[in-house]
Amino acid sequence: MAAEDVENVLQAFERMHEGYRRVLLCYPELIVKSLKDRNFPKRDRNAQEQFIADSIAGDGRVSIRRSRDICGEERAKRKRTGTILRREFYIVCSCKYKGPALHDACPRCGAAVSFLDLATNFAIQTYPSKAQ
Questions:
Q1: What is the pLDDT of residues 69-119, one digit of tens each?
Q2: Degrees (nearest 5) of the Cα angle 53, 54, 55?
Q3: pTM here?
Q4: Which helix (H) or strand (E) holds 32?
């Protein structure tokens, strides 16, 4: 956090694990730019880490400000996206039950809905007839 130039950033990374160093050393200039940004959080350590991460997320292809804007838009989009609270299947079971499934199974006999059937679009299986 106290880095003033690229050399200070490189020295700080010397103490890091090799795997992290390889990934983050691609952007020492971006890290310095984000540390010197006037909007850099002064007190909150988590906010500082998030600020730097959002700033360098654009890999230098966009400005650090635009990179933070994109990250914020994606976070907001994720919050707005709904979640499925319940799903229902209308089933016709071999026990003659017709109606909604209960917990992905027939409420009368307990036969489970096969999710493989969902993936294959309920392809009807044909069995050899007994007459043969």
A1: 999 999 999 888 877 777 777 888 989 999 988 888 899 998 887 776 666
A2: 90
A3: 0.55
A4: helix 28-36
Please give the full DSSP string across 74-119, using - where no structure is assigned. Answer: HHHHHHHS--------EEE-TTS-EEE-BTTB-TTT-PBPPHHHHH
Residues 12 and 34 reside in one and the same domain: yes
State the residue range of the domain holding 62: 6-80
User: How many domains does the structure of the chain reveal?
Assistant: 2
pLDDT digits (tens, 9 = 90+) for 27-45: 778 888 888 889 999 889 8
d(CA 46, CA 13): 19
